[in-house]
Amino acid sequence: MKLTAIDLPGFGCLSDFSCSLAPGLNLFYGDNEAGKSTLQQAICAMLYGFYDGDKARNEETQRHKRYKPWDAGLYRGALEYALSDGRAFEVRRDFSTADVLTQLLDSGLDVSGQFGRGRHGNVPFARKHLGMSRGVFESCAFISQGDVFEVSKNAPTEIGDAVAALADSGRRDVSAALAMERLDTAIRKIGSDQARTAELPKARVNLTRARSELVSADDARRAVAEKAQQLERMQARLRQLAEERARTEHSLHRAYATRLRTKIAEIEAAEKTAAAAEAKRTPASPRSVTTAMRDEVLGLRGQLKRAGDALLRLEREQAGVVVSADERLEYEMLRLSAGQLVAEQVSQLERVAYATETPAPSGLGAVFAAIGRAIASAVRAIVRFVLRRRAEAPTAEPEPALSVTREEAASLLERHRRYLTLRPLIERADALERQVEAERQGVAVAETRLVSVMAEVGLRAHTPAEAFSAFEAAWNAHVAHEKADLAYTSAVERRDLLSAGASLDELRAALAEHETAASEVTGGRGALSGAEVRQTPEPLERGLQKLREEHHQTELSARTLSDEVRMALERYRPRAEIEEEQAHWEREVARLEKARAALMLARQTIEEAMSSVYRDFAPAVNSFLSEGLGAATDGRYRRAHVDPSTLRVSLLVPETGLVVEDPPVSHGTRTLLYVLMRVGLAQHMSAIGEPVPLILDDPFVDVDSRRLKRMMEFLMGLTDRVQVLYFTKDREILEWFEATATGPEHRLHHMSAVVNV
Amino acid sequence: MPTILHTADVHLDRAFAGAGMTSGIAAARREELRDAFRRFVDLALELRVDIVTIGGDLYEHERSTLDTGNFLRQQFERLGAVPVLIAPGNHDPVLPDSLWRRVDWPANVTIFTEPRFRAVRLPGVTIWGAGHTAPDLRDNLLEGFGVPPEGTHVLLFHGSDTTAAPEGKRVHCGFLPRDIDRTGAAFALLGHYHGARVSPRFAYPGSPEALDFGEEGEHFVLKLTIDEQGARPELLPFGRVRYVTQRLDVTGVTTSDELRAGIAAFGDRDAIVRVLLEGELSPDVDLDVPALYNACAERFRFLDLVERTRPGWRLDEIAEESTTKGAFVRLLQERAASLSGEQAEIAEMALALGLQSFDRREVRVL
């Protein structure tokens, strides 16, 4: 593209500015404030307008406003240009409204519609005709003094970096390396699995944790479900047990009730018996009639009876053994006289008496007299006889013969015979008498004892018969009392045994309780009600105990299970929360993984793009750079090399003969280096290969005169390919131009200072 | 004649993972569902209805907590002697470990624990209910069922009218409307569909509160009056929380302030609002979704920001450049053209991120 004419009725400080441009080098010379920068902006605005999109951005609007004509003239312009293919166009823009009326004329015809007309005069013809966007055009085709000054302060490598940035993004501040660095930062922020603290690993850890928690919670819930089933079975068993227990309890209460009813009836009977016995026991009875007493009394009665019988028998016997007083007297006399004779004496007497006979005395007097005498005689005879015997006893000499007479002997024998006749009678009579006496004494003793016994028991009687009768009555009363007492005691004992210390009322209350309990247990279970109770309580109690134990055990197990069911889930957060957390981290992991993949793809693609661009750019700029640098440095640096991977510049240092990256060159050389690369870049950046006009704003202020001229000459040499618009206030360049660029393909444009009105 | 207040599909303990809610907001939503049920009981008391019925999915079994069981028991106790009849659904089936089994329900509560109809005779009406006993019960509960000719009979169950199943909604215990006619019942109180729909012979009250963005619009509970004219259903507006979807076209927006203002303009403290950020986003705009959310969230009951913008770079222009950036765009565009699905999305995202890396100090991953 070559600009051919520009007409600016009003644009910033420029008013009614117009000029025709030469195809080669156009030098715009003027002092400060002459409008050189404004003209550069005007060229850009004419080509690209102020607005890139349909929506006006603030900075675009500000720039649009900034270049309103100072003199309030018409804010518009026209620019003519020709393309390398020979086509020529004229662009007309009216900046006076935000719409920026724009026309692109091709042989007088408005062809702007062919480019897609946007708002605010955004007709992208320049992009199409130059093969680059406004940004790239501004960054590559415009080489300003400030830009060059800034970059050329740096080492050649950094110059390469600056150019690379332009090659990468069309911006001086952003290179592909920087873009990749930014992507790397984002990738690092998301992180890899090794970087545990970065977002993605953290999200993965959180996701794993949430998933694990959910799995655990679900496992626990499944366990709960199983346990709940077990619990349900247990509860069914508990209901069954409760039913059985109720039934058993009901039976048990009824069995107890039956037992209590029986017991109460028995107790009542025992009490009745006791009452009856007590009534019998109560009448007054001898105080202390005892069995011993009765035995004694009975003994006494027997004794008295026997004694009475004996007396009767003795008396009858006595009646048969009558001994008169005379006979007793006689007997006593005879006993004293003849009773002492022993058989030998009798024999002696008999011998004496029978030798002569003596007549017996007659009459009683005579008898007594005779007896007296006889007795006296006998006594004497006996005394003598006895004395003699005593005197003669120690000797065993034969008994001397009696010295009695025959009469005496006959009398003695008679008396002796009489004695022997009387003696059994007397002795019997005496014996009877003694026996009677003994019996009588026994009766007296017995009667005395009887009286004593009677007194002991508080009875009185006049006769033994009365006594015995009274005693017997007392005994009978005693026996009846004892019997009643026994019956009473037995009844009371039975009652006590039955009641086991409980009163009837208590037992009745217990019965009522059992009946109520039975009824309560029955509850709504009519089927139980009235069920016959055949069992005794004990087996029921045992059965109930078993049921209770099983119920208790089952209940405990159920409670434990229920607690387990409850506790199992208590440890976990509500599932909804875990699900939400899991979903959150799943989304986050997916987002980060996707972002990471996208970042890595972007980085990889930028790297590929950069290699591609640099690969094309480096060779193109290499020869250009060497040529330009050689010319500008008067052959000192004849070889320059641009690294195709970094666009960094290396120079062959003549002193060493080595190609050195980042060589220690002067500021001027660095300026040349940068401008040359920029020029090369500008030509390279057109996507369609259209030569891009270079707009240089006094870039060589720091270059010495010699190099400046050579550089200007080099630039002029480029103009067979590229149009150059060089803006300067440097008189030396003006002079050089006036002296050198004399052909019609070059043109000098003087710009006067604009007075701000 | 009796009046019945009916609800279904409350979905207590629901997870709100799908809506992308934070745990705090999801917990608040669950509390709102409880509040809805609390208000349902309040309404039953206020209207002095004779019977309360619940057509299933009162809670979500696999997410249920005993706390919810106790909450429900307390609410049912508040109803005193008013009979509460519950026909469990596919989300709250009668299982050994379900709340129906684990909670000691008050005497006024009847739970239909079998998948066949059982009658509860109440003054003026007999309610026939059936409950789900598994999460995937498919049988037509009405198959072969009929009510006795005398008396007024109302059915209560959780099932799908297969003639009107919403898209994507699974069919559980599907039936045809004529199946209800065939039973001879005066009316059927149902649950399963979350949107209210009333026909002369049956009604879905819908969920009393909207549960997600698919349930925008008003939500109800159902009052059924039974008198000489028969059964008269009436939907009572009930839901308090609305789900609303708004679209914000970011094309032409040049600052994040504009975005903030645009989102804030949709502010509605009674609504759960999903704002779809759409259109072409200028590269100049720093789209920081978390920051936007933080700046605007307080104006909403819940704000769900969904970023669906297209990057505002002029890709065709950039692709024409000879710069690395231009080459990058060309390469990725070529690559994306050969990809599909997630890989294409990744390539598209890579394009945006790559361009960001050229244009911004910091690459922001949305």
- Output the number of helix runs of chain B: 9
Mean pLDDT of chain A: 83
Give the strand order of the largest sheet of chain A, numbering strands 1, 2, ... along the chain: 2-1-4-5-6-7
Oligomer: heterodimer
Class derived from helix and strand content of chain A: alpha/beta
Task: Tell me the greatest interface.
Answer: A-B, 74 and 66 residues
Total beta-strand segments of chain A: 14
Helix content of chain A: 55-70%
The computed structural class of chain B is: alpha/beta
Task: Work out the number of β strands of chain B.
Answer: 17
Distance between the termini of chain B: 60 Å
Query: Largest sheet of chain A, if any?
Result: 6 strands, antiparallel
Strand content of chain B: 15-25%
The unreliable regions of chain A are 360-364
- Major beta-sheet overview of chain B: 6 strands, mixed
The proportion of residues in beta strands of chain A is 5-15%
Q: Which outline of chain B best applies? A: elongated
Task: Reconstruct the topology from this structure.
The complex is a heterodimer of chains A (757) and B (366).
Chain A: E1 2-11, E2 14-20, E3 25-30, H1 36-48, H2 58-66, E4 76-82, E5 88-94, E6 101-106, E7 109-110, H3 125-130, H4 134-141, E8 142-144, H5 145-152, H6 156-169, H7 176-190, H8 199-281, H9 291-320, H10 325-337, H11 343-353, H12 364-392, H13 406-456, H14 464-499, H15 504-522, H16 537-570, H17 575-632, E9 640-642, E10 649-653, E11 658-661, H18 667-684, E12 694-697, H19 705-718, E13 724-728, H20 731-740, E14 747-751
Parallel strand pairs in A: 3-13, 3-14, 8-12, 12-13
Antiparallel strand pairs in A: 1-2, 1-4, 4-5, 5-6, 6-7, 9-10, 10-11
Helix pairs in contact in A: 5-18, 6-18, 7-17, 8-14, 8-15, 8-16, 8-17, 9-13, 9-14, 10-12, 10-13, 11-13, 17-18, 19-20
Chain B: E1 3-7, H1 23-47, E2 51-54, H2 66-78, E3 84-86, H3 99-102, E4 109-111, E5 118-122, E6 125-129, E7 153-158, H4 177-183, E8 187-191, E9 197-198, E10 202-204, E11 220-227, E12 230-237, E13 242-249, H5 256-264, E14 268-278, E15 280-281, H6 289-296, E16 300-307, E17 310-311, H7 315-320, H8 324-337, H9 341-359
Parallel strand pairs in B: 1-2, 2-3, 3-4, 6-7, 7-8, 8-10, 13-14, 14-16, 15-17
Antiparallel strand pairs in B: 1-11, 5-6, 9-10, 11-12
